[in-house]
Amino acid sequence: MLQAWRLLLLHLFLGSPLLSQPHNLSDYAFPQQEQPVGFVLEIEGDWVANEKQLQLGAQVTAGTMVRLRSAEKDSPAHITVILLDKQEFSRTCSDAKECLPIAIPARLASESSLRDKIVEAVMLLFSRKPERYVPALSRTQGTEAIAKDGIIELQQGSIGIGPPLLYLRGTAGSIILRFVPLRFEDDTYVGSESEGVIINLGLKNFSFAPSRRLVAGLYRVSVLDSTQPGLLPTGVEFWVLVVPSAEYKEAFSTFSNAETITEGWGLGVGSTAQRSFMRAVIYDLSQKAVR
Fold it and tell me: Residue 120 gets which letter from DSSP?
């Protein structure tokens, strides 16, 4: 009887939610066929995984078969699936019968690494609020080359003129930016232009620009039209994570590793999908910075 009570107490102790609660994806003991190994980064059309409807951010499991269930002739269907080992699978099809399915591997191709963990972090964010990271179409044509999300350094009241601000060097006139704190309520961006900090980068070749009011954090940055009265937005926007000097090197290293992942993807992955991935990386870094 005493032995039975000991076994019961041991079972209750080990089964305590506080002790058994998993803290990350790798802590979950999924059956092999249910193990999440990737997620849907972009999707258009009626795609299913083992006959289950897929949507943006949906996780795919090991051994899954992803296929196009139906398609419209005038609107080609497209899907991109990213695996935790950085593999990418893309399909664009106009005919469901002729569309080659995607066979998700039963096992990942590589051991866990920093870059694998980056993909895992993005997968978890996309599984919750994927629309949050999808950039809106710019109102200005040809701005993709200069609108680049990224990380900049904050050093003693000045911001570093590195990526992404270097991409604005080719614009004419004085470069004026409005930094508005980036906050969300569910999927909706919450912010007021009145909260913004306006910074004039000028045209000089310097490595830092004065900014006494700017503090560390995540921002939506708008390029303003300096040629018109009122400094109206040009339609060029991007995300920036402002990081203190002490944390910049580590944050920029993670961001660079994430960029390397996207650069290794094939031509089937669109620029919007790549930018969505990088925005999720930036958001994840911003959350770690406040913890």
Answer: H
- In degrees and rounded to multiples of 5, residue 10 shows phi and psi of -65, -40
154, two tokens: 């904050």
* Residue 34: strand, helix, or coil: helix
CA angle 167, 170, 175 (to 5 degrees): 80
**CA 7 – CA 116 distance, rounded (Å):** 39
**Residue 114: partners with Cβ closer than 8 Å, 6 or more residues away:** 254, 257
Neighbour count for residue 230 (Cβ, 10 Å): 6
Q: What is the pLDDT of residues 105-144, one digit of tens each?
A: 988 876 667 888 999 999 999 999 999 999 876 444 444 4
Of the candidates 179, 234, 253, 239, the one whose C-alpha atom is nearest the C-alpha of residue 209 is 179
Task: Return d(Cα 269, Cα 42) in angstroms, integer.
Answer: 8
Q: How far apart are alpha carbons 64 and 237 in whole angstroms?
A: 38
Q: What is the pTM of this model?
A: 0.80
- 189 touches 272 (CB < 8 A): no
- The DSSP secondary-structure symbol of 107 reads S
